[in-house]
Structure formats: structure tokens, C-alpha cells
Amino acid sequence: MARNVFAYTAILALLVALGVWPASAQKAAHVTGVTAQADPPQYEGPCPKTFKFTGVITVDRPGRVKYQWLHSDGKRRTPVTTVFTSPSAHTVRDGWTLGSSSAPFHYNGYGRLRILWPYTARSDKATFTLNCVPRTPHKETR
Fold first, then answer.
1. Among 17, 28, 80, 126, whose CB has the most other CB atoms within 10 angstroms?
2. Where are the domains of the chain?
3. pLDDT for 39-55, tens place per residue?
4. What fold does the segment set 24-132 form as a domain?
5. Cα 137 from chain centre
6. What is the DSSP letter of 2?
7. Cα angle: 81, vertex 129, 137; to 5 degrees
8. Does residue 12 contact residue 23 with C-beta atoms inside 8 Å?
């Protein structure tokens, strides 16, 4: 077993040295900014309605960042790791569908982008307001 670990480590080191496996994939990026926005911020009409969240993670050096989306109902999306190959901003997205086509429903909520690694940080809340109104039946015309 120790022999397998040694072989794996040697192969990984060789890939990094040859530039096949980017060194930036091994290092932690330095996050300098995390933002999030909801689209639309307000909605009134028939439901269900999908709110789209756009987040931007900004780093000032190459490396990995692990993040996840949080919702105001307490649900958390599966964490995702992304690799930055240079200082840059990376856009990440999420969606959340709410409401029913048959019942009135009102909800004030938010989505939030949370950095999990290399350290914790989070965006401000990307707030939205949902006001579902039942569809009105069409009258027959003769």
C-alpha cells in the first residue's frame, strides 16, 4: 500500500513539473471579492417562478476556491471547486423555483454565495420578493 501511495505522489509531482497538471490547481487562491444578485429582484404573477442568482468571485492570484450557494429557506447547494489560472473574476450561477400554479403565495427570500475554502467569506444577501397570483380562467366567448 505504501508503494502505491509513493507511486501516486511521484506521478502527481511529475505532472506538475511537466506543466500537464497546473500548479494553480494545487494552491489556494486569494479571494478579494464575493458578490451576488437575484434576477428578478421582484416578481408578481403566475407561478411557479424561477429566480436566477449570479455571483462573482474575484481573486488576486491563481489557485482553487471552493464555494456553495445558500438559500433563505436553509437549503444549501452542493459545494463546487473552481480553479483560477490567473488573477480574475469568475461568474457562478444558481436557480431556485418557488410557488405553485394553484395557490396565492408570498415570499421574501434571498440567495447568498459562500466561500468555503481557502477561508470562509460570503456575499451580501441577493434578495427577492415573490408574489404568486392564481391564473384567472379564460371566459368562453361565443
1. 126
2. 24-132
3. 999 999 999 999 999 99
4. Immunoglobulin-like (2.60.40)
5. 38
6. H
7. 115
8. no
